[in-house]
Amino acid sequence: MSWEIVIGLEVHAQLATSSKIFSGSSTEYGAKANTQASAVDLALPGVLPVLNKRVLDLAIMLGLAIDGEIASESIFSRKNYFYPDSPKGYQISQYDKPIISKGQLKFVNNGEEKMINITRAHLEEDAGKSLHGEFERSTAIDLNRSGTPLLEIVSEPELRSAQDAVLYLKELHCLVRTLGICDGNMQEGSFRCDANVSVRKSEDPELGTRTEVKNLNSFRFVEKAINYEAARQIRVIEEGGTIKQETRLYDPEKNETRTMRSKEDAHDYRYFPDPDLLPITITAEHITRIAKDLPETPWNKRLRYLKDYGVSSEDAEILANSPETSVYFEACMKKSTLSPKLVANWIIGELSALINKSSVTISKSPIVPERLVSILKRIEDATISGKTAKHLLGVMWNSRSSADQIIAHEGLSQVSDNEFLEKVITQTFTDFPSQVQEYKAGKLKILGFLVGHVMKKTKGKANPAMVKVLMEKHLRQSI
Amino acid sequence: MNLPNSVTKIIQGLEDGTFSSQELTEAYLNRIDNLDPEINSFITVCHERALLDAKNADKSRSNGSASKLTGVPYANKDIFCTKGVRTTSGSKMLDTFISPYDATIVERLGSQGMVMLGKTNMDEFAMGSSNETSFYGQVNNPWNTNCVPGGSSGGSAAAVSAGFTPLATGSDTGGSIRQPAAFCGISGLKPTYGRVSRYGMIAFASSLDQAGPMGRSVEDLAHLLSPMAGYDPKDSTSSMVKTDDYSGNLEDALKGKTIGLPKEYFSTSLDRQVEGVIEEAIKEFEKLGANIVEISLPTTSLSIPAYYVISSAECSSNLSRYDGVRYGHRCELPIDIEDLYKRTRSEGFGEEVKRRLLTGTYVLSSGYYDAYYRKAQQIRRLIKDDFANAFTQVDAVISPTAPTTAFEAGKHLDNPIEMYLGDCFTVASNLAGLPALSIPAGFVSGMPVGLQLIGSYFQESKLLTLGHMFQKSTNWHQHFSRDDSKGAQ
Asked: CA B105 to CA B471: how far, in whole Å?
């Protein structure tokens, strides 16, 4: 009888709109406190919410991407509770009629494909922020974030390990970024996660009592918090105790979860339809219009990269998981007939290394796709070696000159003049007679040493493949 | 000066140059200063601002940029946010609140060049039918100062009746324009839900609240309704249905019009003498050529309970924002957030508001929602269906506005249920979202009686025509509670 961990995730994805869900205030992150709070956000007497219609498009995009049901009519409800950073005394959310329901998300764990059902995704507004410690003996309120649009995406309790939970979350993170509906910035709170965790004996048909773990603002914390919480629950049960349904807060510094509020303290939110807002109606035409321009999901993109480009599954994942990287990769492929594997290697390898060292993103890289393609073309036509190309990439990062200009200017072109090479090769055979004998006696590996010598003599400008071919020809002839 | 007794005459006088807006405004302000202490219809009088606006209005008149209503004085119920002017909603909670923005209707009336004299008294957060729940003291009925003026727009009704202002705005959640209009002998219209923007009108019950005009005659109402009505992008529930030419369509023969008489409205709770006045009025309509038919609104008895469940539920949520954190009343030296909420709200709200907040919180609680809130919404649907059915046969429904004339102050204070039952003829049109008009129809023992006409959706024009034609052949609306020639100096 082993223990099974059961996890369901609630993700709050901040929708990428420039203004708030019910007011015209900006949603930009990091502004001075309360400079992005209008009369509506301050909940002055008499103000009314007006829906920012853009959030519907973004919710529909998610609904389509997870193959969910998009409600033709859904309703905003009020979730009533008192808290200083909730200026109206209620949050506008969705309750019994969410905009999206019954979707699915697939991910791969260790080569095994898994599919998790998504119960619902609903629209709601974010709360403001309480700032403790800014003023002595007082709590300050910043309402800049109040009214920022959120899509809460709730999974079924179908995840069975912390690792699964993280992979599901990463897949969802990648999806919302690829769709362009959320910037996915976890530090700024644009993508937040709460985990519902319970444990049971694996043959038990009933789910155990769950706790809700909050404050999981990185993938690493999600994994650690779930593992901690599951172990805690197992320990409690094995010691003869029972799990209390409660909300727990994860403390990353101590790596533990602590009771935040028990079920007895839970609010009665007194949900009811918000009379200030009309029901949301979504027509089939609206859905069709959004579907027409829906970006490819990362899942489908990976499959396409494997099939159409023949890249490895690891490369397909790296390329497809970042929307910016995949755009870059596809731009390279569109502009050339280069080997996809070569392009993938260079993007994932040398280009990424340069990007990681600087503070730019791949979409802002000074090496635009055309420039990378121009370098790789010179590798393919053997003008330069891989090693030279690496040097060339570094030069081009800080220069506006083209690849060919730098090759010409720095004399980087590999020597592929056979006559000159023949001379160097003959000289090398003369200089290293014993090595030549060893080769002839069957120690073929020694050829590497001889090729290396030719490369040294030509200061690396010779094409090593060509040198190897020529040397083999000579040595075979003289046997 | 002798104050003109209709808005039409005011417009005429301003156009002719018989008097300026400044003279007129000063006269009304004098009258308020001299006579309102006895009535208490204003919470705030805006002397300087009004005179400045009047001066600007006169300038517009002289340079030809004036519109019809430029320079016409009016008063706003203190439920409408007015930029730079204290806006209290009759509550201690907002005693210190100076609105940083104008309600949409305040902005619209201001852009017509109308001159706001001040803010009128009202039941706290519009919860009440007698104007006794105001933090600023009860309003006295100008016809008999021992009686209530009705509520919640009692200040507006009393001010119009006493000739302190030719026009006033009101708001009506369950009868709050019509019942005080009836008690004070003036005319008042609750438009179709969505006809007038709610933006900047302090919410009581969002799905029922509707702003409307109050004045002496239907003709005056039409003048004020025109700039108030129309779609507002700031109010998602406001309607895009085209507005009518309310003043232009007043004259129309009533021949061929059918008026329905709901048998359920003439029950035992109705005062016999009030019933007599209404019967006379019905005869008048018949004389004018209208057909009177008896109809049935079987869900009538359910409207009061449904109304009090829904309105209380919505207000319990709407008034949550008054928490002492950002504006308005805050208790002294709170020890923690819990204490701040508890004491701020205990001190800031009056008894009637607290009663409704408790009721509303209860009916929305988990386990009770279905039995109360959901059930009330189902009843609301039935009430709508009843009216929809009635309007297949009739142009309007006629009834008394209230079962009695204005009662004595204090009479129902200890028995809120009795007070609530007084709304039995008015709440159904709020639940159904229908327009309804109250006009003076006669007197019982010297106190005015109001007649209500309920119309189908967006049929304000039809109601105003019915009311206007009635007023053309009667003079009940020309009985004034105060002599217009006094106190203006």
From this structure: 27
B135, B151, B45: which is closest to B90 by C-alpha?
Answer: B135
A420 pLDDT more than 70: yes
Cβ contacts of B147 within 8 Å, gap of 6 or more: B140, B141, B183, B406, B407, B408, B409, B447
User: Structure tokens of A334?
Assistant: 């569109």
Query: What is the predicted pLDDT for the residue at B238?
Result: 98
SS3 B352: helix
pLDDT(A478) > 80: no
pLDDT of residue A457: 83
Those residues whose C-beta lies under 8 Å from the C-beta of residue A98, and which sit 6 or more positions away, are A71, A74, A120, A121, A122, A123
State how far the Cα of A383 lies from the Cα of A465, in Å rounded to an integer.
12
The enclosing domain of A434 has a CATH number of 1.10.10.410
The 10s digit of each residue's pLDDT in A463-473 is: 777 788 888 88
- pLDDT > 70: percent of chain A: 98
| pLDDT tens-digit readout, B468-485 | 999 999 999 999 998 877
User: Of the ranges A308-312, A376-380, B64-68, which one carries the lowest mean pLDDT score?
Assistant: A376-380
pLDDT value at B406 more than 80 = yes
Residue A317 and residue A189 in one domain: no
Q: Is A351 on the interface with B (CB under 8 A)?
A: no
Q: Do A268 and B337 touch (CB under 8 A)?
A: no
Residue type, B113: G
Q: Are residues A50 and A92 in the same domain?
A: yes
SS3 state of residue A11 = strand
- CB contact (8 A) between residue B337 and residue A51: no
B203 and A278 within 8 Å at the Cβ level: the answer is: no
Q: In terms of DSSP bridges, do strands B73-77 and B115-120 run parallel, antiparallel, or are they unpaired?
A: parallel
Alpha-carbon gap: B98 to the closest alpha carbon of chain A (Å): 11
Model confidence at B280: pLDDT above 90 = yes
Is A433 a member of any domain?
yes
In total, how many domains does chain A have? 3
C-alpha distance from residue A208 to each of A195, A261, A310 (Å):
15, 19, 45
Q: What is the pLDDT of residue A416?
A: 61
Residues 110-149 of A with CB under 8 A from B: 139, 141
pLDDT, tens digit, 9 for 90 and up, residues B254-277: 999 999 999 998 876 799 999 999
Confidence band, pLDDT 50/70/90 cuts, at residue A474: confident
E strand or H helix at A74: strand A73-74
Query: What are the Cα distances from residue A369, in Å, to A320, A349, B145?
Result: 16, 15, 86
A215: in domain: yes
Checking if the pLDDT of A417 tops 70, the result is no
Pinpoint the alpha helices (H) of A135-249: 162-179, 219-238
Q: Strand order in A3-14's β-sheet?
A: A69-70, A100-109, A112-125, A149-155, A3-14, A191-201, A211-216, A246-251, A256-262
- Give the end of a domain, one of A388, A410, A432: A410
Distance CA B64, CA B472 (A): 32
Q: Would you tell me the crossing angle of helices A219-238 and A162-179 to the nearest 10 degrees?
A: 150
Separation of alpha carbons B469 and B474, rounded Å: 9
Do the beta carbons of residue A124 and residue A116 sit within 8 Å? no
At what angle are helices A323-334 and A369-380 packed, to 10 degrees?
A: 50
| pLDDT tens-digit readout, A48-88 | 999 999 999 999 999 999 999 999 999 999 999 999 999 99
Asked whether the beta carbons of A60 and A118 are under 8 A apart, the reply is: no
Instruction: Give the per-residue pLDDT at A138.
Output: 84
Tell me: do A389 and A422 sit in the same domain. Answer: no
Among candidate residues A63, A45, A54, the one with its CA nearest the CA of residue A17:
A54
Q: Which of B348, B306, B305, B304 is nearest to B325 (CA)?
A: B348
- Supply the pLDDT for residue A479: 58
Which residues from chain B sit within 8 angstroms of residue A75, using beta carbons?
A: none
